[in-house]
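Predict the structure of 1,4-alpha-glucan branching enzyme GlgB.
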Amino acid sequence: MSPSQTQPDNDDSLLPSEADIDALVRGEHGDPFAILGPHDNGTLVRVYLPNALAVELLARDSGEKLADMRASRVPGLFVCRLAKARAYLLRIRWASGEQLSEDPYSFGPLLGETDLYLFAEGNHRDLGRCLGAQCLNVDGVEGVRFAVWAPNARRVSVVGPFNGWDGRRHSMRLRYPAGIWELFIPRLRPGESYQYELLGSHCILPLKADPVALATESPPNTASVVAAPLQHDWRDREWMSQRAARQAADAPLAIYELHVGSWRRDQDGRLLGWQRLIERLIPYVREMGYTHVELLPIMEHPFGGSWGYQPLSQFAPSARYGRREDLAAFVDACHQAGIGVILDWVPAHFPTDSHGLGRFDGTALYEYEHPFEGFHQDWDTFIYNLGRTEVHGFMIASALYWLREFHVDGLRVDAVASMLYRDYSRKDGEWIPNRHGGRENLEAIDFLRHLNDVVKTEAPGTLVIAEESTAWPGVSRPTAEGGLGFDYKWNMGWMHDTLKYMAEDPIHRAYHHDRMTFGLIYAFSERFILPISHDEVVHGKRSLIDKMPGDRWQKFANLRAYLSFMWSMPGKKLLFMGCEFGQWREWSHDHELDWYLLNYDDHQGVQQLVKDLNRLYRREPALHEQDCVPQGFQWLIGDDRHNSVFSWLRRDRGGRPLLVIANFTPVVRHGYRIGVPSGGDWQEALNSDAECYGGSNLGNAGGVVADELASHGQPFSLNLKLPPLGVLILRPV
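Done. Here is the predicted structure for 1,4-alpha-glucan branching enzyme GlgB.
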């Protein structure tokens, strides 16, 4: 017998109560620390290791054997009494081999009171480094601290390959009153898969992924993965120091929206990971002249057909595309190439998969309880209960995590309209009014305002953009002025109106003239982005070029004219991948874009036009400096519906103009007179009908001299030839 061991007690005297034993064996004990680990001032040690053959206690400092733990009458429950308390190790003999480890139940509470308080208050802004699986050194021992919010569970365990997925092995400690369960598992390393096993009020729930997992298995597998703290040597200091100016309202913002999994693929059809995207996507975006990329949601999501818009892991990038470090390297490389990165982010709803957030602890924890509040009928998803402080704080922390941890430059918030209105897409009698009897979701409104205020404080210089399709006032107005506080709002009305106009046969466009002018009535009521997004080229809506009427030549001419019209209108720009070269096929998330089309001159022409539009937009302050204020725009011709001609001036802050003329019929207009503010030479900066774009090369030989003849309220005028289905942009020399 070791001198540190005594055995004055019989086996039963070392055991906990029968009730405790029964609860332990049944997997129903809610406080395993009360009976396992060291007790009686550290002299009594109990471990519960189902299927273990034998257990020894070793001194942690010297490795000397302290005791052979006795197998009790309860299979798997081992006990011993030490003469004095010692820090110990467990040497466990299994049928498959031997394991050496510290006892998880020998460690005290780990989460600090401040962490618990801030979480319960809904104001913990760094949950990605607090909850979930955190690699830590505790008392000189490397391991992983798990922490998960499940206040209504009767028992929570961490399970994984490391314990045979046995929920009796690593039951957690409940920290009152925050409702967070925690456990430190010694010697566990990054890369381990895990899930939580929760005992609800009546039964064991389906295994749950970690809501704050930093990494996950690749779908269709559903486990979370322990991740080490992000290790990346950031080299984007120059970009970060200039970001606020690059993303200001007076700066050019031309966004290339893409779905990572279907932009390009390997020759064998496999997805490109972040490393390959660094090699292929970044040079392409830079060559095309875009200022930013916007990625459809890359947070882990179980169903690829949701395009990422039904995410379950609000802190974990999808394993489909590589490791967290690979994503960081991609963002860093974008910044070094002068390209910003915007992520689509979904705080409105989440999917109903059994391993997800739904009924997480057996109750409606993350979602509203009542289906009239907590279930989206259109999308078969749950709705976040943002009125619950913990959920509110969880989502704020998620937003900050992407902006701070990965240096992301902005978030585009999906489905804001569905968050603002309690009756969104619901019939009468299928929604619950707010406390004032109205249809506004007051909790979501408070959340969005808080989100935008916190981001401006915690991640200055970044953008938060709303996909909001209603007439809600002040979406991009500061919260101090009663607005929601977003930096930009997608102009869905402009998009719908102009696409309907372009779909008309040119002979009928005279009757729909106001669709192209109506957007200017409210163009400066918000800070707008003009979006031609993924939603416009799927589900039978046809591709952008296929929306255009006419024969092949007219379709391409219409597309070139529309893109030129868009780039010269007030508002920042967003174009979905494939639209920049006229893809005929609707977008499919299962296939890469039809890049072979660039073997054809007309597709190359559209691509070249977009390159030149982006360069012109960035080079000419008149096209971007006053995007968001009325001083930057002036109609010259907005009422020539008979000829389907429009003309306007764009001005920079110094008043220097650019002239834009759009002819949306396939008829050449000879001798069309347009007023201009100054005399002398006016040079064609862009002609969408140029031969290099696949056009008929009709125009004004590169420029024209202004006549001293007043027109359209201007002291001078130009006598122009307007190309068919074409847009001209001219600058004074």
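Residues 601-619 form the longest helix (19 residues).
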